[in-house]
Amino acid sequence: MTPVELSRTVLRAVRCAVDEGELSVAVPVRAVVTPPGPGGCGDYATNIALQLARPAGRPPRQVAEILRPHLSRTAGVAGVEITGPGFLNIHLEAAIATIALVREILDGHANGHAIDSGHDSRGSHSSHESHTPTPYGHTPTLTGQVIPLRIPYDIRAEVVADSLVRIVATQGGRAEVDHVRAGEALSLRPVPAPEDPAPLGADAARWALLHPAAHDRPRITADHLAQRESNPLFRVRYAHARARALTRSAARLGFHGEPGDVPGAEVLVRELAGYPHALSAAAAQHAPDRLARHLVAIADAFLAFQHTVLPLGDEKPSAAHRARLALAEAAGTVLAGGLSLLGISAPDYL
């Protein structure tokens, strides 16, 4: 069940409640379904009860209580909880949640390629219709908003602002960068680097400036170039390269990825599911470090999981291997996308 399908499920629950006389409202055209925010739980959450409370003439939690049993009876839904003022938090059956997540990531990636080339997967011109999948983690949260970034003439501020332009765009907004002189008001002023990061090379220099929080002084050291586990940038790029290598190895063995249940991959699934929240938080808080640190968490979870993907010895590829490969490919896709937003390359070979 993808978020789009779940949105339709929420609307069906509203329609059922209206048909049974439990609510007297017009059924909305759209129900927003997102990963749970702070204080939430489950796989997805919706604010539909808050949206309907005023037209229904009822408190939001009461509307949520009316909708909860209709949602709970849906195939694939393991449970529904109410949190805060009336958010409905939906728990999906584990296998269904994993399949939906992997499909959403891979479908969004495929659509992103089609849009970039101006053609859909059949080679015809893309019409950018609203029903086509958007890249994973992209939302309309900031649609129509212009975010002014007033920065000093400083290399770290320049790099942070450059990344934020792309990150804000993933949420539908537009960031406009404007340089100001000493004494003028700033909207973005990270602690400057202690020295010129250029000798590290473009990728390591950007990581050195973006990975620490804005209030932390960045370290401009050769550690960022080390190809070892103690280097977070290496782990992220290595995890992406390993995901691509698994796809190549699977092709040689004659199988491909196919979304399915992946027992034992709960940590990786959780980190991938948290990527949209990390992206929206990075945009809202003007903090690309939120994205950088989340990429490290995904990479670490993937590197602990990767050894289970390919068949061992004389073992034949099975549905389990195909499901693990699809999850690995989803992880590689998210890592590549996140690094691109930071302006850092994601090589297929490392």
Short description:
The protein is an alpha+beta fold and 350 residues long. The chain is built from eleven helices and six strands.
Q: How are the SSEs ordered, and which strands pair?
A:
Blueprint: H1 3-19, E1 33-34, E2 44-46, H2 48-56, H3 60-72, E3 77-83, E4 87-92, H4 94-117, E5 146-151, H5 155-170, E6 174-179, H6 202-210, H7 232-253, H8 266-273, H9 275-284, H10 288-305, H11 319-341
Parallel strand pairs: 5-6
Antiparallel strand pairs: 1-2, 2-4, 3-4
Describe the structure.
By secondary structure, this protein is of the alpha+beta class. The protein has helices at 3-19, 48-56, 60-72, 94-117, 155-170, 202-210, 232-253, 266-273, 275-284, 288-305, 319-341; strands spanning 33-34, 44-46, 77-83, 87-92, 146-151, 174-179. A 4-stranded antiparallel β-sheet has the order 1-2-4-3. It has a two-stranded parallel sheet with strand order 5-6. α2 (48-56) packs across α3 (60-72) and α5 (155-170) packs across α9 (275-284). The longest helix is centred in the first third of the chain and has 24 residues, at 94-117.
